[in-house]
Design brief:
Elements (H helix, E strand, L loop, with lengths): L2 E5 L4 H12 L3 E6 L7 H10 L4 E4 L5 H10 L5 E4 L6 H6 L1 H22 L3 E7 L25 H19 L4 E7 L1 E3 L18 H9 L6 E4 L11 E2 L1 E3 H17 L14 E6 L5 E2 H12 L5 E4 L14 H7 L7 H16 L3
Parallel strand pairs: 1-2, 1-4, 2-3, 4-5, 5-6, 6-11, 7-10, 8-13
Antiparallel strand pairs: 9-12
Helix pairs in contact: 1-2, 1-8, 3-5, 5-6, 9-11
The structure holds uridine-5'-diphosphate-4-deoxy-4-fluoro-alpha-D-galactose.
Length: 351
C-alpha cells in the first residue's frame, strides 16, 4: 500500500482529497497545524471512509517536528502539499507572514523529502498566477503568460512554482506536479466535511451559504458594470470532490508512469502543470440565481461597487488535465450548490 503524506490534510481541499485517496486504496498521513481547521474534520473523514487517517499536529515551518513525521512514517511515497495561508486580503496586510509561511513550508517539505528519499510532490497552485488573461487566452490554458501577482498570496504561488522547477532541475530524483486550481466550491455529498471559513467569509460561496442560513443580512455583489453578459465577474467554479479526484490522478501518474521524455512550456524536466477547472465560466449573479432556484432559499443581495483587485473574468481550459490525467470535472453546478447547502445545514443544525 502506497503511503501519501498530506500537509494541510485537515483543511478544505485537503480533507476531501484525503477521502478520495483512502477510497482509492492509499495509506494517508495528515500533517496539519490546525490554524484554519480542527480535529473534528478527522472524525468527518473517518465517518465517510471508515478509516481514520494517521494525524500529526505540526507546522510545516517546524523542521524538527516535520522531520520526525517523515521518520515515523517512512517510507513515504509522495507528498501532497496543501498547507498554506490563503486569504488574499490578509496577505496584503501581512505580507511577511505569507511569504514566511508559504515559501518556508515548501522549502522544508522539499528538504525533508530529499533526506527521506521521497521523490514525488503534488503542489497546490492557483489560477491567480495568470492574473486577467487577454481575451485570446480565454479559456486559459497552461501556456498563458504568468502575470505580475496582485497580492503577496498570489506571488507566493508563483515563487513556489519556480522553486519546484529549480529543485527538480537540480535533483534528478524529484518529480513534481503543479495543480492550478480555479474556484473550488461545494462539500462532500455526505455533509460530513466541507469548508470551514474563519470569521466573515471573503469567498463568494461561503458568504452565500451564511446569508441563506441567516448569519449574514445580505450578500454584496461586487460590481455589475464589468464587461460580461450580466455585468458581474465570471469564474470557473469547480466541485471540491472533482478537484480532490484530480489529486489522486496526479499521484497515480507520478507513481506508476515514467516521466515524459519530452516537455514543453510550462512543463519542465520532471515538472508537469495542470489547470483544474470545468471549462465553463459562471457569473456571480448566475451562481446566486441558481442557488436560489435549486434550494428555494432566499438570498437578499445588493449590488455594490467593485472589490479592489478582482479579476473580471477567467475560466479554464482543462483540456490537458482531461487528456493527460484522464480526469474531468463534470458535476452539475446544481448538485454542487446543493452539496454546499447540505453542509451548511449540517454546520448550523438546520433541518
Ligand atoms: N464576490 C461577491 N461578493 C462576495 C464575495 C465574492 O460578489 O461577498 C465575487 C467576487 O467579486 C468575485 C467572485 O465573487 O467576482 C468570486 O470571488 P471569491 O472571493 O470567491 O474568489 P476569487 O476568484 O476572488 O479568489 C479565488 C481564491 C483565491 C485565488 C483566486 C484566484 O479565493 O485564493 O481565486 O483567482 F487566488
Amino acid at each position: 500500500m502506497k503511503r501519501i503524506l498530506v500537509t494541510g490534510g485537515a483543511g478544505y481541499i485537503g480533507s476531501h482529497t484525503v477521502v478520495c485517496l483512502q477510497e482509492s486504496g492509499y495509506d494517508v498521513v495528515v500533517v496539519d497545524n490546525l490554524s484554519n481547521s480542527n480535529r473534528e474534520v478527522l472524525d468527518g473523514i473517518e465517518a465517510i471512509t471508515g478509516c481514520r487517517p494517521a494525524f500529526e499536529q505540526a507546522d510545516c515551518l517546524d523542521q524538527t517536528a516535520l522531520r520526525e513525521v517523515f521518520r515515523k512514517y517512512a517510507p513515504i511515497d509522495a507528498v501532497i502539499h496543501f498547507a498554506a495561508s490563503k486569504a488574499v486580503g490578509e496577505s496584503v496586510e501581512k505580507p511577511l507572514l505569507y511569504y514566511r509561511n508559504n515559501i518556508g513550508s515548501l522549502l522544508n517539505v522539499l528538504d525533508l523529502m530529499r533526506e527521506a528519499g521521497t521523490g514525488h510532490i503534488v503542489f497546490s497552485s492557483s489560477c491567480t498566477v495568470y492574473g486577467q488573461p487577454d481575451a485570446d487566452h480565454l479559456p486559459v490554458d497552461e501556456t498563458a503568460p504568468i502575470q505580475k501577482a496582485l497580492s503577496p498570496y498570489g506571488h507566493t504561488k508563483q515563487v513556489n512554482e519556480d522553486i519546484l522547477y529549480a529543485a527538480a532541475k537540480a535533483d534528478k530524483s524529484l518529480r513534481a506536479t503543479i495543480l492550478r486550481y480555479f474556484n473550488p466550491i461545494g462539500a462532500h455529498p455526505s455533509g460530513k466535511i466541507g469548508e470551514l471559513p474563519n470569521g466573515v467569509p471573503n469567498n463568494l460561496l461561503p458568504f452565500v451559504m451564511q446569508t441563506a442560513a441567516g448569519l449574514r443580512e445580505k450578500l454584496r455583489v461586487f460590481g455589475d458594470d464589468y464587461n460580461t453578459p450580466d455585468g458581474s465577474c465570471i469564474r470557473d467554479y469547480i466541485y471540491v470532490m472533482d478537484l480532490a479526484r484530480a489529486h489522486v490522478k496526479a499521484v497515480e501518474r507520478m507513481l506508476t508512469t515514467p516521466a515524459p521524455a519530452e516537455y514543453s512550456y510550462p512543463d519542465a524536466e520532471r515538472v508537469e502543470v495542470f489547470n483544474l477547472g470545468t471549462g465553463r465560466g459562471l457569473s456571480v449573479l448566475e451562481i446566486v440565481r441558481t442557488f436560489i432556484e435549486v434550494t428555494g432559499q432566499h438570498i437578499p443581495y445588493e449590488i455594490t461597487s467593485r472589490r479592489e483587485g478582482d479579476i473580471e473574468q477567467v475560466w479554464a481550459s482543462p483540456e490537458k488535465a482531461n487528456r493527460v490525467l484522464g480526469w474531468r470535472a463534470d458535476t452539475p453546478v446544481e448538485d454542487i450548490l446543493l452539496s454546499a447547502w447540505n453542509w451548511e445545514k449540517h454546520l448550523r443544525g438546520i433541518r
